[in-house]
Specification:
- By secondary structure, the protein is α+β, with helices and mostly antiparallel strands.
- The chain has two domains: 8-18 and 141-211, no CATH class; 23-134, no CATH class.
- It is 15% helix and 34% strand.
- A hairpin with a 3-residue loop joins strand 10 (168-170) and strand 11 (174-179).
């Protein structure tokens, strides 16, 4: 697979971004709660899980049954907050150190008719109700990477749309697949845990094969 040449480079640029300060108020309560889900059809209503179990994770314990109508998994508070508020990197979240070390088992039932797109708002309700989470938004200048095109132009191989494969191979050492530059920037953000901005202006799909030292 063809990879990006040295003319495609990452540069640093300031970003006026968002940070959330997360605070746990009072005592953590674990167990099962009937959240009193609000009708998904009500305009402006904050969606909530119909029933949700939040427990401290015990090593070796099962995760519970997962199906399209449930949200099930083991997460740290940091990951839950990032999912709930659409944060791409931990760089955007100001939180206590234990938020990365505490693991919670979540088993929540979605209301009938709810969609996956409503899960982030349901998580916001769950975090506020169960963990007494409060957040505030503030603006900060933070260092980011900027994906740009070198003076010699792009050297990566464009992918014929008829040969496009929607498959991503990613590990701590490499990233491979057919990506637009915006998708590549998103994936690099996840890998580097620092925001990567797509400033290439390129719209085609490219055959990408990146490998870096551990």
């Amino acid at each position: 697979m063809a990879g990006p040449s040295r003319s495609e480079h990452l540069g640093k640029a300031p970003l006026l971004g968002c940070a959330f300060a997360a605070a746990i108020v009072g005592t953590l309560a674990f167990g099962t709660v009937h959240a009193g889900a609000q009708g998904t059809g009500q305009s402006g209503a904050q969606p909530a899980f119909e029933v949700a179990s939040v427990k401290l994770h015990v090593a070796g314990s099962g995760r519970g049954r997962s199906d399209p109508g449930r949200f099930v998994g083991t997460f740290t508070p940091t990951v839950l907050i990032m999912m709930a508020y659409g944060l791409q990197t931990g760089q955007q979240l100001v939180r206590p150190a234990w938020a990365d070390a505490l693991f919670l088992d979540i088993n929540a039932k979605m209301p009938e008719g709810a969609t996956k797109e409503q899960i982030p708002r349901m998580l916001q309700s769950l975090l506020a109700d169960r963990l007494r989470l409060t957040v505030h938004q503030e603006s900060r200048i933070m260092t980011v990477y900027q994906l740009t095109v070198g003076k010699a132009g792009p050297k990566m191989k464009e992918v014929d749309p008829s040969k496009f494969t929607d498959q991503t191979l990613v590990s701590p050492r490499f990233l491979r697949g057919h990506f637009t530059m915006s998708k590549l920037a998103y994936l690099l953000t996840e890998t580097l845990d620092r925001r990567v901005l797509d400033s290439t202006g390129l719209k085609a799909i490219y055959d990408v094969d990146l490998e870096w030292a551990g």
